[in-house]
Amino acid sequence: MDTVSDDFDAERHLCRVSQSCAELLDTLAVGVMYTDTGGSVRLATSSRGTDLARELLENQHRGGPCPDTYGTGQAVPPVRLASADALARWPDFTGRARTQGVGITFTVPLRARERVFGVLNVFSADHLNVRPAVGCPHESEDADALEVARAVADAAAVGLHNHRAYSGYRELSRQLQSALTSRIRIEQAKGMLAERWGTGLDAAFEALRRYSRGRRLAMDTVARMVLEGEVEDLTPLSGGTGRPEQPDQPPSEAL
User: Fold this and answer.
1) Are 26 and 48 in contact (CB under 8 A)?
2) Pairing verdict, β 41-45 and 76-80
3) Residue 214: its pLDDT value, please?
4) What is the per-residue burial (b if ≥16 Cβ within 10 Å, else e) of 83-120?
5) Do residues 48 and 19 touch, judged by C-beta distance below 8 A?
6) Which of 30, 97, 212, 252 is deepest in the core (most CB within 10 A)?
7) What does pTM read for this prediction?
8) 3-state SS assignment for residue 123
9) Is residue 134 scored above 50 in pLDDT?
10) Tens digits of per-residue pLDDT, 19-33?
11) What gap in Å lies between CA 131 and CA 152, rounded to an integer?
């Protein structure tokens, strides 16, 4: 998916990422909890076990591996939910996950340039389908699964970072263009009024500013109204020639 485009959809992107991870690990489901550009928490899930993933992501409002990773920025390695540690750590989440047939869960952060965009959460049965190294099945199995998920999450995070950077540049460009257009319009209105009144540009600008303040309108709005002939009661400052007034001469001393 092209992440540097106006039609990029973060949820669709992360759903695909989740499904890819679920297929690579042959697991029950995978989901992502992430924040959008407005700071709201969003969910994206694999098509495999989508209801399971969504339910268990939503259930973590009282604690779970996703909030832990969000808080620390670090992965939560595979946890066996049948353990007393898991039940003590996340009682509500662990109970709900076990009733859904989940025996192992773990999370990795979606992080790019030291910024955490979200968390990828894997939900598995009682074992991880990654080929173990000889002699240490569980440790190698867990480490391999964690590395696969981390690689997927890192790639997803780069996509989110690139799109948000692109969106930021587009917005900055729009703001700069808008400011330039506004400035040109104000200069045009100043020139029109100065020519009409036979005054200097400074006097025309002061008249525009006085009018905008008096009616609580933006200068750009008043300038557009002037250019489009919508202002009839805009008048120059008294004696406004654009040249500084000469100070009064002191009275002549009596001879």
Assistant:
1) no
2) unpaired
3) 87
4) eeebeebbeebbebbeebebbbbbbbbbbbeeebbbbb
5) yes
6) 30
7) 0.65
8) strand
9) no
10) 999 999 999 999 999
11) 18
